């Protein structure tokens, strides 16, 4: 059987489902490759993670086309026999391990689909060997690892790998305590991600971030906090969170909800905060940055109008 794969979102971030699908078909003796629209296939898999990604609309020559991923349907899942395959990293020429140790999250945030898709409980789905085999870096995709009752054991597994760990979706700082902080700091950390999304969580988030600082010697370059904007907070409160995190020695990182339709001020705030050279410059406040941006935009408009 000849099998074709299409990563609809592009190849900037490896698609875990496609890597597992590839591994399963190769274990069955099938030929697997990225789909070439000039060739015929017995089966083609199209995977799309993000709803805002435009679909792949080229003509595909295949007896069967299977669409999957949250970008197509929140109920989309791969069969268990494929889900538990060790990923075929070779299709992305990837030397980093990607995977989930847990699924689900009890928070049920309005801006997040995890609760509806995976359930309102964090539960263990794998041990580290299911997707790691000696790679020097591991990127975890877990939505809320610390909410899982077995998270201390899972952190021990990560420690034993001696690989650099990137908790890509963030750790729930509201669940930090002395025991799990100790485990987290025994991991080799490139970057820690936390999040401050809701105004009503301000008190506990500041308390827990201050607590983490008492145990940790990590600099702000290794402690990043996602800041959700354009959802249910005011722009003034967004600025307050950014400045507060900076004072607490954490690196804020702006995430824009519904970015395609967001006001320009949120996009400017994102460029300002996420451009670290600008953000940590002592000579440029956000107001100064905005004024400079306005001047540059007006100059560009004037040049275009003169053409």
Strand order of the largest sheet: 5-8-9-10-11-12
Flag low-confidence runs. 297-307
Radius of gyration: 22 Å
Instruction: Write down the secondary-structure element order.
Output: EHEEEHEEHEEHEHEHEHEHHH
Task: Please state the overall shape, judged from the principal axes of the Cα atoms.
Answer: globular
Short characterization:
The chain has 307 residues and is of the alpha/beta class.
In words, what does this structure look like?
By secondary structure, this protein is of the alpha/beta class. Helices cover 34% and strands 21% of the residues. The strands form 3 sheets. The protein has a 6-stranded parallel beta sheet. It has a 4-stranded parallel beta sheet with strand order 2-1-3-4, covered by helices on one side. The longest helix has 21 residues, at 286-306. It is globular.
